[in-house]
Write a structure and sequence with these properties.
single chain, 5-stranded antiparallel sheet, 3-stranded antiparallel sheet, 14 helices, 10 strands, elongated
């Protein structure tokens, strides 16, 4: 066969010295150029692809399309050349192309499916080492020998007989199935979440999580079948898992169920500004087990989903994104009330974040011990930009306006009466 391992090293060296080896190298170079050109043309046709795209990536050679297309073209060229000339270069080139395709596909899918996860780097290195080791064993002809030796290692698991070869082939099959599963689920998630906002984003996130969980479950079943484990044994395993969830994993199961309930009923959506357990912030992500709430000051809170269902949660943007704010100020009793009302209103309207409809309102709330007490109320619609900063800016504008019009902001005043002791008041 054209892609058979190199069993006769001298014959292979002799074949490399033949003029036909140059033809093989030329065909490989042509396949490389053709694959690069096709990927470049497709990237240009679809526009600037997303950096997280599995097919394209950041550069032409970064995605999965280039190594897969190069492998396909190399296989076609190998089949055509094998009809006329003995092959030597392709005995090494094809295993290398297969290894490159496996490594690039596995790494890219893991990077997209598990963003910024520390375990991704370890998995990437594992895939690379396994692929290159398999390539070396394949080319050297040691792979069939190693598989035969592993096939001699057998043991019984229940009613099934397993061998070392079954475990290796099953592990590779499981890895391939899981990579394909993650690829499909990532593509579905990207399609569902594209240009989705508000309630639609939460619903699509729920569908994406459910699809990924279903595909991973099916992939696990296929992997177990490939190893040779009888799937009827899963009924006993399912019963044991059910008992474990019922007694030891109640909170964990409750959080997972709560996550799907929240995403399905859309009571809390990605982008909502909420207050839960005295923590205010915007919901940035809803996962199966927990929800991430980010405060305007940069802090993030990981809230278990069960807490969002059993506790009181203030959703400040469920029906309406507008919220009201107020600030208090006192002026002297001799101040012009109409002028004070106008100055407070103008101080609020100086800021673009303050809504014009409904307009700011000023009311005389009390006759205080130190002066007249006014309350300025206004509405904003961008709570994610902060509340305290706007209130501070409005207070500064009020203070500047009052000072410019010589309106007194009174200091607290108290009259203290002193009385002599009783023995000093008695007649001497």
């Amino acid at each position: 066969m054209a892609n058979a391992p190199i069993n006769d090293f001298d014959s292979w060296i002799a074949a490399l010295l033949q003029p036909t080896a140059l033809l093989e190298l030329a065909s490989l170079a042509l396949c490389l150029l053709l694959a690069w050109s096709l990927v470049w043309a497709v990237r240009r046709a679809v526009g600037t692809p997303d950096e997280r795209s599995i097919l394209f990536g950041r550069r032409i050679v970064d995605g999965v399309m280039f190594p897969l297309l190069l492998l396909g073209l190399g296989t076609l060229a190998q089949l055509l050349l094998a009809q006329w000339i003995p092959l030597a270069v392709y005995k090494i080139a094809m295993p290398v192309l297969v290894s490159l395709a496996v490594i690039r596909t596995g790494v890219k899918v893991l990077q997209v499916a598990f963003q910024d996860a520390p375990v991704v780097r370890l998995l990437e290195r594992t895939i690379s080492w396994v692929a290159w080791l398999a390539m070396v064993l394949w080319v050297s002809g040691l792979l069939p020998v190693l598989l035969e030796e592993l096939d001699q290692l057998k043991w019984k698991v229940g009613g099934s007989t397993l061998s070392g070869r079954n475990m290796v082939e099953g592990a590779l099959t499981a890895g391939a199935v899981l990579i394909v599963t993650l690829w499909i689920s990532s593509a579905i998630e990207a399609r569902l979440l594209k240009s989705a906002t508000g309630s639609a984003l939460s619903l699509r996130k729920a569908l994406s999580n459910a699809t990924r969980a279903l595909l991973m479950f099916l992939g696990l079943l296929l992997a177990l079948s490939a190893v040779g484990i009888d799937l009827t044994a899963l009924s006993v395993l399912g019963g044991a898992v059910g008992v474990g969830i019922g007694f030891g994993l109640q909170k964990l199961a409750a959080n997972y169920v709560s996550g799907f309930v929240i995403l399905a009923e859309r009571s809390i959506r990605i982008g909502d500004f909420v207050k839960v357990d005295n923590f205010e912030g915007r919901v940035t992500d809803i996962n199966a087990r927990y929800t991430i709430v980010s405060a305007p000051n940069g802090r993030e809170s990981i809230v278990p989903n069960e807490m969002l269902l059993i506790q009181r949660v203030e959703n400040l943007s469920l029906r309406n994104s507008r919220i009201s704010q107020s600030t208090e100020v006192s002026v002297g009793y001799d101040s012009d009330v109409d002028l004070v009302i106008r100055l407070l209103t103008e101080a609020a309207l100086q800021h673009d974040r303050v809504l014009r409809d409904p307009a700011p309102s000023v009311s005389l709330t009390a006759f205080g011990a130190d002066g007249l007490e006014f309350s300025l109320g206004y509405w904003i619609a961008d709570i994610e930009n902060g509340q305290g900063n706007l209130r501070s800016q409005i207070n500064l504008a009020i203070l500047q306006a009052l000072r410019a019009h010589h309106i007194e902001v009174p200091y607290p005043q108290r009259v203290v009466h002193t009385q002599k002791p009783a023995e000093q008041l008695s007649p001497g």
